[in-house]
Amino acid sequence: MQDLQGLPDFHAAGRLLINNSPSKPFVFKTLSGLEITDGIDVSSAISTSRKKYATPTKQVEEEIINRRELYKLNKA
Hints:
Elements: H1 2-5, E1 11-14, E2 17-18, E3 21-22, E4 26-29, H2 33-37, H3 42-53, H4 57-75
Antiparallel strand pairs: 1-4, 2-3
């Protein structure tokens, strides 16, 4: 465990599965947050992500209420 805690910033350890057998562990360097967002309009990326993956709270609450009502009807 100490070995993993001692990794430098933006480094990770991993193992690949090759023919259903794990490979030897290896360490690799990842991108920092600054490198990832260079040249990207962050607010635009967030907005696009919300449009694609998020569900409005009101819709989620309505779905929960509908499921609850169906549950109550089936239980009766």
